[in-house]
Specification:
Number of helices of chain B: 12
Structural class of chain B: alpha/beta
Bound molecules: thiamine diphosphate, magnesium ion
Shape of chain B: globular
Largest interface: A-B, 45 and 43 residues
CATH topology of chain A: Rossmann fold
Strand content of chain A: 5-15%
CATH class of chain A: Alpha Beta
Oligomer: heterodimer
Largest sheet of chain A: 5 strands, parallel
Strand order of the largest sheet of chain A: 1-2-3-7-6
Helix content of chain A: 40-55%
Strand content of chain B: 15-25%
Number of strands of chain B: 14
CATH architecture of the largest domain in chain B: 3-Layer(aba) Sandwich
Strand order of the largest sheet of chain B: 3-2-4-5-7-6-12
CATH superfamily of chain A: Thiamin diphosphate (ThDP)-binding fold, Pyr/PP domains
Order of helices and strands of chain A: HHEHHHEHEEEHEHEHHH
Shape of chain A: globular
Number of domains of chain A: 1
Number of strands of chain A: 7
Distance between the termini of chain A: 51 Å
Order of helices and strands of chain B: EHEHEHEHHEHEHEEEEHEEHEHEHH
Chain lengths: 319, 326
Amino acid sequence: MGLPKETHEELYTKMVQCREFEEKAAKLFIQGKVHGTAHFCIGEEATGIGVSSALEVEDYILQTHRGHNQGIGKNMDINRMMAEFLGKETGYCKGKGGCMHIADFSVGSLGANGVVGGGLPIATGAAFSQKYKKSDNITVCYFGDGASNEGAFHESLNLAAAWKLPVLFVCTNNLYGMSTSVKKSMAISDISVRASGYGMKGIALDGNDVVNIYEETKKAKKYVQKNGPMLMVLNTYRWMGHSKSDAQLYRSKEEVNEWKEKCPIKRHREFLIESGMFTAEQIKAIDKSAKQDIENAVAYAEASPEPKIEDIFDDVYAD
Amino acid sequence: MRTITYAQAINEAMSEEMRKDENIVFMGEDIGVYGGAFGVSRGMFEEFGDDRVKDTPISELVITGCAAGAAMTGLRPIVEIMFSDFITLAMEQLANQAAKNRFQFGGQAAVPMVLRTPGGSGTGAAEQHSQSLEAWVCHVPGLKVVIPSTPYDAKGLLKASMLDNNPVVFIEQKLLYRSKGEVPEVEDDYIIPLGKADIKREGKDVTIVTYGRMVQRSLEVAEKFASEGVDIEVIDVRTLVPLDKECLIESAKKTGKVLVVHEACQTGGYGGELASTIVDSDAFFYLDAPVKRLGGLDVPIPYNPNLEALVVPTEEKITAAVRELL
Ligand SMILES: Cc1ncc(C[n+]2csc(CCOP(=O)(O)OP(=O)(O)O)c2C)c(N)n1
Ligand SMILES: [Mg+2]
C-alpha cells in the first residue's frame, strides 16, 4: 500500500521543476528574451506529471499546447525544452517548433499541438500501430475541456472505441478554454459522461492530487490494455492567464485565489512531510535543486546557437 | 505488356506492395467487402483481411489523422477518401499535422502515408462530388501531390508514393477508372519516381502542359492539329509537387508557345504555378507569345450534363486556345 518513497520523490521533484520552469519562462518573457508565446500549466502540474510518470518509455503521449507538465512527466530533457522555448538550434525542434510543438520521440512524446484537439486523431493512429504490432503499450492523449467540444474529439473517441484501440484519453478540465467557461461552452459539468456516448468507460478525478492520478493511471493502463479506450477527466485550474497576454476579465480574483489554496505542489509537500516520509529540510533541498536545474537549463539554452537560415529547408521532407 | 484499367492498376500497386511489406495498412470508408465507392479495392479485403484492410466509420478527419499517427509510429498507411471533395473535412489533419510533423518536431517524425482520393467532374455528381482541389494541397509544404493520367503511370506512381517517406496526396481521376492502357507484366515490377514529368507527345510548335484527365483530351487536340501541320508537344506533369520544372522550361524553350490546361477552376489553380514556372525562367526569352492558361470556369460544378461538360476545358476550348497562340 502507498507508493514507494522514490516515486513520491520523483513526482514531487518533477512538479517543482515544472513550476520553476514556467515561472522562469514567464520571467524571460517579461525581460523580452522570448519571441512568440507559451501557455503555462501552473496550478495544473499534478495532471500531466501524475499521468506521464505512470507510463513506460514505450507508451506514447500526445501533448497539448499547455503541456510542459506532460513532457516533464515523461522524462523529457529540461535543457532541450528550454532551448526550444528560446528558439535555439539545440532545442527539441531545432528552434523551429517552439513550446507549442515540443516533442521527444525518444521518450515516447509524439509532440505537442498548436491545434486544439489536433492530437486526438493522431493518438488513434499511434494506438493503432501498437495494437497492430501486438504491443502491450498504450497511447495517452492529452487534451483540454475546450478540445472536447471539437469534432476531432467525437471522431477520435468513436474510432478508438469501435476498434478497441489502446488509448487513454486524458482531459485536463481547467474550467476554461481561453476566456470561455465550461458553463458557457457545454451543458454538462462532468465531462467524463461523454465517454458513455461511445460505449467507453469514463472517470473524473481530482486533478490536483498527484498521487491519486498516478495510481489511477496505472490502473487505467491495465484497463486500456485489456478493454480498449477510456476517458479520464482531471478537474483542475489554470492560475495564469491563457497565454502571454490575457487580462483575465472573465474570472474573479477570488476564484483564482480559491484554487491557489488547492495548489497541487503544496498539497503533496504537506503530505510528504506530515507522513514523515521526508523532512522539511529534505524537501527544501529538492526545491533548491529543482531551481538549480532550471537555472542550468536557461544557461544551456542561452549558450546554444541560433538556428541557421541555411538549414531552413531541412525536415520539410524526409528523404 | 498487358492491358488493364486505371482502377486495376491502382489495385495492383497497393496489393503488390502490401504483399511485400506487412507495415502497409489500408483504411477508408467502404473499402472492404464493398470494394470502395469506385470498386478500386475489390478483392483486397478478401486477400488481406480485416487487420490490414480497414473499413472505417465515416470520419474523414480521424481516418486521416489515424493514418498520420500510425505513419509516425512505424506503419505505412494508405487512406482512401471516397471523394476528393471530402479532403475539406480531413484538411486539418492533413495540412496541420501530417504535412508539418517532420518539420515542426525538428526532424524527429517521418509520416510515410498515402492519401488516395478520386477527383474531377463528369459523373453528374454535382457540386460536392466533382471538384478538383489539387491547388489546396499543393500549397502546403510537406505534402507531395500526384495525379496520374494512365494505368501505367497510376501503377508506377502509386508504388513510388507508397515507398516515399512523406505524406503523398494521390488524386485519381474518376472518369479514368475504367480507361484502359498497357502496363508491364506482373513479374516486371516498376516504379515511376515522383517529380518526373512525362512528355506524352513530342512536338516542336506548341507545348501543352497539363495533367490528369486533360492529358488525353490534349492529346486528341494535338492529333487533330497534326493534320494541319501543327506539331504539339503534350507534357503530363504527373507529379505536381515536387514539380519537374526542367521539363517544362526545356519544352517552352523548344516551342516558344505554351498553353497550360487543367480541369480545376482557373483562379488560384495550379496552372498559375505551371505558367509562372516557365515565365520566371530563362525560357521567357524564347517565348513568342504570352503563356496561356485554360482552366475550368470559376463556378461550382453544375448538375445538368450539358452545363457540366461546358464548365471544364473541352476539346473545342483547348483548340481555340491553341489557335490563339499560333
Ligand atoms: C482549432 C483551434 N481553435 C482555436 C485555437 C486557439 N486556442 C488555443 S488554446 C485555446 C483554448 C483551448 O482550451 P482547452 O482545450 O480547454 O485547453 P486549455 O488552454 O484550457 O489548456 C484556444 C481557443 C487553436 N489553437 N486551435
Ligand atoms: Mg481548458
